[in-house]
Every structure is written in C-alpha cells, then in structure tokens.
Design brief:
homodimer; 2 domains; globular
C-alpha cells in the first residue's frame, strides 16, 4: 500500500501568545482571519509583524492564529543566516533554550529570549491515517519526493492527533532543495 | 567498500568570459586570485560584480576564475525567487535557453540573455576515484548526508576527469535543507 502524503511548504511565520498580540497590536486586540490553513482551526491572520535579529530584519512576517500559549517564530536556515539569529532545528513547541528575537507591531515591541526555531520537518496524521498505515506518534520516517531534484528526507517526525489533517510540512529551504511545492505528493518509504 | 566524498557548498557565484571581464572591468583586465578552490586551477577572484533581476539584485557576487568560454551565473532557488530570475536547474555549461541577467562592474554593464542557472548537484571525480568505485561519467547517483536533517540526494550527476579532485557540490538551499557544511562527509549509496 503506497503511503502518499501531500506536501505543504511553510514560509517563515510567527505564532503569538495573546499577551504578545496585545503588546504588539493594543489591549484587547484579537487576530483576524485572512485564510484558513490545512490544519483544522488554524489560520493565516491579516496581521503581520516585523522581526529583527543582530544582522538583519524581515519587515513583514505573517502571523498564524489562533493565539498560542507561547510565542514562536519559525524561520528557515537561510533566514537564520540573513538575520544572524542562531535558531536551532526543533519540533514546534520545543522552544526551551532556542534563539531570541525582537518583534515589532503597530502598538509596541516585544523582545523574547527564546522562541525562534527552524521547524523540524514533520507530518501531521489524523489518527485514522496513522492507524491505517501503522504509524506511531513521534515515529521518525523516511519520505521521498520525486522530480529533477528528487530526494529522501530522513528524520521526518510523525505527529498524530484526531485534530490533524494529513499534511507534510517542510520549510522553504527544504522545498527549494527538493523542488517540492505545496500540493505535491510525497511518499513515506520507511 | 564505503564510497565517501567531501561536501563543498557553493554560494552564488559567477563565471565570466574574458570579453565580459573586459566589458565590466576595462580593456585588457585580468582577474586576480583571492584563493584557490578545490578543483585544480580554479580560484575565487578578488573581483565581484552586481547582478540584477526583475525583482531584486545582489550587489556583490564573487567571480570564480579563470575566465571561461561563456558567462554563467549560478544561484540558488532562494536567490531565484528573491531576484525574479527564472533560472532552471542545469548542469554547469548547459546554458542554452536558461535565464538572463544584468551584470554591473566598475567599468561597465552587460546584459546576457542566457547563462543563469541553478546548478544541478554533482560530484567531481578524479578518473582514478571513478575507476576504483566503478562510476561512469554522467552516471546519476544517490548520496546520503547524515545528521539531524539527514537526507538522501537523488540524481546527483557524476563528472569524471583527470583534472578533477573528489568533491560533491551542492548549493546553499541543499546545504541548509540537509544541514551539510563544506568538509562534511557524504556517502554514495547507489
């Protein structure tokens, strides 16, 4: 049985805590939805912020909503070199001891000491897909992308939840290196 | 027998024809050596040029010498998006129908209609290494890079010559996606 998953390419983006939403956009501010994402309930917000590292800045980074417990900026390694932010490769949510950044919004500025990561590539599985294919949460998979820059990604982390939709998330460096685009099919080979 | 090759990461760079060296730097100008490269006789020059595409520019692109028959700019796909230059993935030297760019030097400007490529990943083999491992010129190989972002590159082109030194060339997107750095070891697995 072929285990095919759609690819989703993640450009740099930020998740904000509600506290930081208000520090950046004003007291009581609520993020507004620009468009829904592949994961149920998640959305790209209309709002953007600027982020600044020691060597460079990005003036317009998309916020993904809804607000989360902790603020987390996800950048590519290319972005890390451009900004001088020494972001480690981490699974989303695992931000302890990661890199810091200064975030600027229309109503204020926030500097965080940790929260900047290069997201480890991963696949979101709905529980039903994972069961069908015998895949466990946190299992490390090998996933092949075809084409002229075809390659096999190792260490792709399985994340299983009844609230997930099947989708493999890679960053822009991984997309550019493999030639994969959002909507392309990838195959779990091990 | 393990087939291990050193990785060399190529940042964006340009090769110039002598005609273009003179158009950009002045009549009779000769490139000067900044430091030697891994391939015998090749060098990074002290000279740089600016390159401009429809959406963006890079002010300082390193020239690699000596001068070649045809001018060729090698960029990553990230660079291609940043500049708006629609560069195809190509083997070095195969520039027919590739993308154009405007190049600016201290003494002039040149616009080429073709010559901009995203270099296809490849391994330079000295003839002796290729014979020892049973590898043919132009053979497509699978090459594994380990580590937290470990992956297997497919379609890695073998280039065999008595004037080559063993070295696998990947671009900055491929380096960032795999975590590989210049000097790391990669393994030919197929």
């Amino acid at each position: 049985m072929s285990k095919t998953v759609p690819v989703g390419v993640s450009a740099r983006h930020i998740h904000l805590s509600q506290e930081h939403v208000e520090a950046l956009f004003g007291q009581g501010y609520q993020l507004t939805e620009f468009k829904p994402l592949s994961q149920p309930g998640q959305f790209a917000a209309n709002e953007t912020v600027a982020v600044s590292g020691p060597k460079g800045s990005f003036p317009k980074v998309r916020i993904l909503g809804p607000a989360r417990k902790a603020t987390q900026l996800e950048i590519s390694r290319t972005d890390a070199f451009a900004t001088g932010i020494k972001a480690p490769v981490r699974e989303s949510g695992n931000i302890s001891g990661s890199a810091g950044v200064t975030i600027t919004g229309p109503a204020g500025e926030v500097t965080i000491e940790e929260g900047v990561i290069v997201a480890a590539r991963h696949i979101h599985f709905h529980t039903d897909d994972a069961e069908k294919w015998g895949i466990q949460d946190q299992q490390q998979l090998k996933v092949r992308v075809g084409g002229e820059r075809g390659l096999v990604f190792e260490n792709v982390i399985a994340r299983v939840s009844p609230s997930f939709a099947l989708d493999m998330h890679i960053d822009t460096d991984e997309a550019n290196a493999s030639g994969a685009q959002t909507g392309d099919a990838a195959e779990i080979i091990d």
